[in-house]
Amino acid sequence: MSEAATPDLKSRVQDLIDTMINPAVAGHGGFVELIDVQDNRVYLTMGGGCQGCGAADVTLKAGIERLIKEELP
């Protein structure tokens, strides 16, 4: 059974996206949007300059995923 994230966790992830992640990817014309948080998994979409970019996977794994795990263990 899927467990929905607490509203607090979802809002903390959104705050992290707004304050740390989006300002960083905006420099490359991109943005990250939070879709949902379920079972301690964060579901995102990347758009703008990120869409179709060859470095998007690296940005997701080495940047966004790492930052979320560090800031919200």
Sheet with the most strands: spatial strand order: 1-2
Q: Return the string of H and E elements.
A: HEEH
The largest pleated sheet is described as:
2 strands, antiparallel
Report the uncertain regions. none
How large, in whole angstroms, is the Cα Rg? 12 Å
Mean pLDDT: 88
Structural class: alpha+beta
- State the CATH superfamily name: Fe-S cluster assembly (FSCA)
Shape: globular
Number of helices: 2
Assign the CATH architecture.
2-Layer Sandwich
Distance between the termini: 22 Å
Beta-strand content: 15-25%
- CATH level-3 fold name: GMP Synthetase, Chain A, domain 3
Share in helix = 40-55%
Supply the number of structural domains. 1
Would you state the CATH class? Answer: Alpha Beta
The total of beta strands comes to 2
Features:
2 strands, 49% helix, alpha+beta, two-stranded antiparallel sheet, GMP Synthetase, Chain A, domain 3, 73 residues
What does this structure look like?
The chain is an alpha+beta fold. It has one domain: 2-Layer Sandwich (GMP Synthetase, Chain A, domain 3), CATH 3.30.300. About 50% of the residues lie in helices and about 25% in strands. The protein contains 2 helices and 2 strands; from the N terminus they run αββα. The protein has a two-stranded antiparallel sheet with strand order 1-2. The longest helix has 20 residues, at about 5-25. The chain is globular, with a radius of gyration of 12 Å. The chain starts with 6 loop residues before the first helix and ends with a helix.
